[in-house]
Amino acid sequence: MTRHAILVARHIFPEVSQRLAQHFEVEANNAPIEWGRDELIRRLQGKVGAFISSTEPIDATLLAACPDLRVLSSMSVGYNNVDVAACTARGVVFTNAPDVLTETTADFGFALMMATARRIAESEHFLRAGKWQRWAYDMFVGADVHGATLGILGMGRIGQAIARRGALGFGMPVIYHNRSRLAPELEAPLGARWVAKDELLRQADHLVIVVPYSASSHHAIGAAELALMKSSATLTNIARGGVVDDAALARALADRRIAAAGLDVFEGEPEVHPALLQVPNVVLTPHIASATIATRMKMAMLATDNLIAVLQGRPPLTPVNPQVLKPA
Ligand code: DGY
Q1: Is the pLDDT of residue 1 over 70?
Q2: Residue 224, SS3?
Q3: b/e burial code for range 119-150 (CB count within 10 A of at least 16 → b)
Q4: C-alpha 210 – ligand 1 centre gap (Å)
Q5: At how many degrees (to 10) do helices 102-117 and 120-128 cross?
Q6: Pairing with 270, which of 23, 76, 177, 250 sits 20 to 30 Å away (CA)?
C-alpha cells in the first residue's frame, strides 16, 4: 500500500518527523528558516497533509495550487496566517494547538508585564553599561503590580489565566473587555468585571492585550486609544502584531503618554518598528511567550496527533473547521 506523502514545513523537534515517518512519507524542512510561498507550493505538490506553524501564509491561491492537500495542522494556537474559509471551501481540514500553551503563555505575559512595570530590562542595560555609581531613592522607580488594576483586552483562555495570576497571586482588581462577557461563575472567583473598551483603557494600571488578530482587531490600540490611558499605565502585548499600531505606540512611549510597554509581538515581525528600538521604556522580546521546552513539545505533538488522526480517518483533537470532517 502506498503511504501518504506529507510535508513538515518548519524546523521542529526531530520527534515530530520520527513519529510521522512511522505512518507517512515525510519531507521535512531541516533548516531553521521559513520557506517562502513559491517554495511551499513547490514542496506541497503531491502532499496530502502538512505540519505548519504561525508563519506559513496559507491562502486561497496556495490552496488552489496544491490540490492534493487534505489537512493542514498548525502547532500554533493563533492562525491569522491561515485563510480558514478558503480551507473550508476546498474541503481542507485545518487544526490548531489550543490549551496546551495557555499557562506557559500566561506566565510569560505576567512576567513581561512585571518587567515593564518594574523597569527590569532598562535597569539591566544601565548596569551592564557600567553606569551604576550609587543607590538613589528615585533610580528606576516604577509602578507597583500588586494591588494595581489589571486590565485585560481579550478574555479567552490565556486572558483568564493572566487574570487568575493577577487576582489570586497579586491582589489585583481585574477589569476586562471582550466581545462577550464571561459567565458569572467564571467572573466571580477572579472578581473580574466586564467594562466597555474606553473604560478599560481609562482605568487600567496595567493593560495586557490577548485578543486574536483579525480585520476587526487591526490597530485596536492606536493613538486615540493610547490617549485614553493613564500616563502612569503600562501596556503589554502578547497577542499578535497588528493589534497595536506600533508607530503610534512608539510615539506615545517617547512622549511619555504612557509609562512603558512590553511587547512580544510586532507588526511585520521579525522586523521591529525602528522607533520602538529608540525608546528606553519598552521591553522587547522575540515572540517567545509559549517558548518552554515542555510546552513547545506539547504544541508540536498535538499538531502531529491531529495530522495523523485526519489522515487515518479519525477526528482530530482540535479542528478549527470541523464542518469539513466527513462523518465516520
Ligand atoms: C501561537 O501559538 O499562536 C504562538 O503565538 C506561537 O505562534
Answers
A1: no
A2: helix
A3: bbbbbeeeeeeeeeeeeeeeeeebbebeebbb
A4: 11
A5: 60
A6: 177
**Ligand 1 mutation pick, 54, 107, 211, 288, max ligand atoms within 8 A of CB:** 54
pTM of the model: 0.96
Residue closest by Cα to atom 3 of ligand 1: 78
Q: How far is the CA of 74 from the centre of ligand 1 (A)?
A: 9
Ligand 1, residue 287: give the atom nearest the CA: 5
Find the domain containing 308 and state its range. Answer: 5-99+293-324
Q: Are residues 32 and 94 both part of a single domain?
A: yes
- Indicate the pLDDT class of residue 2, thresholds 50, 70 and 90: confident
Q: How far is the CA of 199 from the centre of ligand 1 (A)?
A: 29
One domain, residues 176 and 315: no
Residue bearing cell 496556495: 62
